[in-house]
Design brief:
This protein is mainly alpha-helical. It has four helices and no strands.
Length: 99
C-alpha cells in the first residue's frame, strides 16, 4: 500500500467513525469495562458502532481473563513448589527413602 493509499484509508476510516459516532481506537482502548458496557447498551444491535464497541469489550474481557489465568498459574506453580519442598525436606526424607 502506498503512502497516499494509507492516508486515504485513514481519512475514510475517520469519516466513517464520525458518521457512525464511533470513538477512535485509542479512546475505546482507554475506556473501562463499565464504560464500554454502557456504550454497548446504548448502541443499536448489529450497527457498525455496536460491532466495534462489542469487539473492544471482548478484547477487554480476554485481557482480564488472561491476567487472571496468569495469576492463577503463578499461584499453582508456587503451591507445587511448596509441596515438592515439603516432601523433599520431610523428617522421613523423600518417599523413596522412607521405604
Amino acid at each position: 500500500m502506498t503512502q497516499s493509499e494509507i492516508e486515504r484509508k485513514a481519512e475514510e476510516d475517520g469519516f466513517l467513525r464520525g458518521y457512525h459516532d464511533i470513538p477512535d481506537n485509542v479512546k475505546l482502548h482507554k475506556m473501562s469495562f463499565v464504560d464500554l458496557a454502557a456504550l454497548l447498551a446504548s448502541c443499536e444491535g448489529g450497527s457498525a458502532k455496536f460491532n466495534v464497541v462489542e469487539r473492544e469489550l471482548k478484547k477487554h474481557l480476554a485481557k482480564d481473563q488472561a491476567e487472571i489465568n496468569r495469576k492463577n498459574t503463578g499461584q499453582e506453580i508456587s503451591t507445587h513448589r511448596q509441596v515438592i519442598q515439603n516432601v523433599l525436606h520431610h523428617p522421613c526424607g523423600p518417599p523413596e527413602a522412607a521405604q
